[in-house]
From TrEMBL:
This is 2,3-bisphosphoglycerate-dependent phosphoglycerate mutase. Its EC number is 5.4.2.11. GO terms for molecular function: phosphoglycerate mutase activity. The lineage of its organism: Bacteria, Pseudomonadati, Pseudomonadota, Alphaproteobacteria, Hyphomicrobiales. It holds the Pfam family His_Phos_1. The keyword Isomerase applies. InterPro entries: His_Pase_superF_clade-1 (IPR013078), His_PPase_superfam (IPR029033), PG/BPGM_mutase_AS (IPR001345), Phosphogly_mut1 (IPR005952). Belongs to the phosphoglycerate mutase family. BPG-dependent PGAM subfamily. GO terms for biological process: gluconeogenesis; glycolytic process. Catalyzes the interconversion of 2-phosphoglycerate and 3-phosphoglycerate. It comes from Variibacter gotjawalensis. The gene is gpmA.
């Protein structure tokens, strides 16, 4: 029987998560806590008796390092890894690198909240969640989903917003529902899919 296994994991805490900065496409390192979160994710997946045939991640090192740490904990350092900017975090444009409190002082609480929490209103020079979904979802459908459905056990280490694009389609959520969905750093979500790509089961390995 084909095991259509797909695991999503958001990268561990980054240095800019800790500093309350808009990170977006800026390439920053994991914190010590982020490293531990990634290792713990690998240990949890190993304890579930899981293994993977292929892995995908973004073009940003916080996701790549998370994936390396997860696979290292599982003893899976030699599986093929594909890195693609289609899985990058949402690009926050002019907000990239800014402290979130400073952004609120500059543009006002309501405007910054709208940029952060609306579905289709992008910050200046950046992407909305809708824009992020428009690049991440086709990549998943064309490059990742066919392998999962054929039985390739797959893990994706990426970012809060690019993974929300996948969660939206997997769990058949509408724009309002996905806006309320938060993905914790370093917490694996295990999906098993039906042959038609719908979700047969879901396990969230939150601590």
């Amino acid at each position: 029987m084909t095991e259509r296994l797909l695991v999503l994991v958001r990268h561990g805490q980054s240095e800019w998560n800790l500093k309350n900065l808009f990170t977006g496409w800026r390439d920053v390192e994991l914190t010590e806590k982020g490293v531990e979160e990634a290792k713990a994710a690998g240990a949890k997946l190993k304890a579930q008796g899981l293994t993977f045939d292929v892995a995908y991640t973004s073009a940003l090192k916080r996701a790549q390092n998370t994936l390396d740490l997860v696979l290292g904990e599982m003893g899976l350092k030699d599986i093929p890894i594909t890195r693609d900017l289609a899985l990058n975090e949402r690009n926050y444009g002019d907000l990239n690198g800014l402290n979130k409190d400073d952004a609120r002082k500059k543009w006002g609480d309501e405007q910054v909240l709208q940029w952060r929490r609306s579905y289709d209103i992008p910050p200046p020079g950046g992407e909305s969640l809708k824009d992020t979904i428009a690049r991440a979802l086709p990549y998943y459908v064309q490059h990742i989903q066919p392998g999962v459905l054929s039985g390739k056990r797959t893990i994706i280490a990426a970012h809060g917003n690019s993974l929300r694009a996948l969660v939206m389609v997997l769990e058949q959520l509408n724009p309002e529902q996905i806006l309320k969905r938060e993905l914790a750093t370093g917490v694996p979500i295990i999906y098993r899919l039906n042959a038609d790509s719908t979700v047969a089961s879901k396990v969230d390995l939150a601590a």
